[in-house]
Amino acid sequence: MTDEHPTAAPFLPPRFNLETLARAAEICAGCDLHHLGTRTVFGEGPAPARVMFVGEQPGDREDVEGHPFVGPAGKVLDRGLADAGLDRDEVYVTNAVKHFRWESSRGKRRLHRKPSMAHITACRPWLDAELAVVKPEVLVCLGATAAQAILGRTFKVTQHRGEIFDTEGIAPSVTATVHPSSILRASDDATRHREMEGFVRDLSSVARLLAA
Question: What is the reported pLDDT for 107?
């Protein structure tokens, strides 16, 4: 990255709540993605919240509307939460990266590009601040990018999904599952159904953990 600020840290207010964080993030220039995304898409939900979900980055619809998980993947998340007995209005949802990284297709559609580790690192101060305000009992990482940002670069969701980790200084319990968008990319209906069942199973484990 060639921006003057290689991290979001200088843009955080000295004292903050979710409202002041979201307002400050609107002018973040902590990495080059602020040139690409239409707007900053900050997290949303109550604070404190018992459960916090963190995904990779906003998608096309989130970039247009300015809210996290409102596109197709968001609908899958909503369904998974409902089937697991979790209320979307009672959880906090955010992303490891707050701007949409994309490239143009021949049909002028904006295609998702995975954020780099430099983007994730630059944006980490926002995520740390959200964690400090939301104070979740359980942090759920959606997909490999979010999981590796929290649990280390070698973490593999395919091997450790649904497991509960005690990560000091982040949240009392941290777990990981697939990103809802991966369910949408399933090759056929049978695979999609099976992947959705696994997703709901992981979220149901979170619900049981909260009820314990």
Answer: 67
- The ranges assigned to domains in the chain are 9-211
Are the CB atoms for 30 and 122 separated by under 8 Å? yes
Q: What is the 3-state secondary structure (H, E, C) of the chain?
A: CCCCCCCCHHHCCCCCCHHHHHHHHCCCCCCHHHHCCCCCCCCECCCCCCEEEEECCCCHHHHHHCCCCCCHHHHHHHHHHHHHCCCHHHCEEEECCCCCCEEECCCCCEEECCCCHHHHHHHHHHHHHHHHHHCCCEEEEECHHHHHHHHCCCCCHHHHCCCCEEECCCEEEEEEECCHHHHHCCCCHHHHHHHHHHHHHHHHHHHHHHHC
Identify the pLDDT of residue 109.
Answer: 80
Cα Rg of the chain, angstroms: 16
pLDDT at 2: 41
Residues of the chain under the 50 pLDDT cut: 1-3
Chain segment 150-176, per-residue pLDDT in tens: 999 999 999 999 999 988 889 999 999
- CATH number for the region 9-211 comes to 3.40.470.10
